[in-house]
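As a warm-up, study this chain.
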Amino acid sequence: MLPLRISFRKNAIAENERGVALLAGVMIVFFLSLMIGAALLRSQMLLKEVDQRIDSHYAFYCAEAGLDRALFELRRNSNWRPGPGEQGVSITINQGGNPVTLGTYSLSAQDGGVFQNWDTVWVRSIGYEAGGLTPRTLVARIIVANPAKFLVLTLGSLHIVSGASVDFDIFGQDIYFDVNETLPSPQKDINVNGDVYYIRSVNGDRNPAVKFGTGSSTINSPSITFAGVDLNRYRTLAQNLTSTGEGLYDPDALSVDLDSYSSTSPAPKIIFAEGDISVHGDYPNSLIIVSGGDIILDGDIGANSTETGPLRPQLGLLAQKDVTIPATTATGTDMNLEAFVMANGGSGSQGNFIAQGSPRTKGSLNFSGAIAVRGAGRTGVDMNAFQQRNYNFNSQLSANNSIPFSPFIANIVLWNEVEPTDPFPPP
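Now compare it with the structure written out below.
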């Protein structure tokens, strides 16, 4: 009987060992299951966090797109304010040939007051990703101004030479007062009755021959974006208005005698040519002339009106390249110009307003209006072919601008991310 009892005890021990191994295996499987479950849960949380970050970035990009839209509209119309058409605007991109909606934006705006002598607008842009669950809100303070705010505005250098008489504010990246010491007084004098705005530097202003009027000063200004010449916009406007007689489009160069429009009804609002435009004469109605090349001033230009103030007609001369006065124009004689002049400086040009010819070979230049040139090279405006240069600012160009479709400056100077319910900052 003893061998039988020994065999039973061995079997019991073996069964106990198998039970312990089974329990240990179950515990290991349970522990591994917990670990795998935790890892899967963590992965899901990480993936969800990544999706939320992507959605947040999309919402931010949509809010930025809203600010870009505001800048685009303000550069066309300084009085633009968001309406129903700027609420819930979809932003769509192309992925693999298929349109994909990133999200939407909504805009609001209010007056921003004056910032460093510039009028501003506060614009709020709320961006949403496609699900509309992760809003991001940007608020920007935008300078909004007529480029005719200054008698002369350039993003380049501006050299003012002896014989110049400036009666209003000027703006340039670097301003130079170049006194010709070989000339006697008063021929060597430079007279400035206005403020001198500069981005980087002002030079030569302490020369005794540079005479500032009472209250005139130099002012360091923030950088701005040049208003520019939107050729596609003006081309489309001219083509669309041709059928009514309010627009004239020419695919080549063009010569414009403004006197010929004195009896035209309706009077044109816009003249556009893909090439150069030569201009002279008196304009009876407010008009904008846009050239895809140069604008060439080959004679006197003025308003055919005895009206003054806001009722006086205004002329805009906008060149994609340069605005020039040929060497053969006004040689030995005076020249009178009344207009808003803009030189954009595209297609390899410098974007300058230049009187061609040797220095002091023309008579006097009597300019009334405003000048905005992008400016490259030595100076944005060079009228030194005239012995005397009298620059007079037409305040109505800024206060009561009646030039059709005139471009405007719109430039962000401050921006910040806020909560969607935060109020606008004070003006």
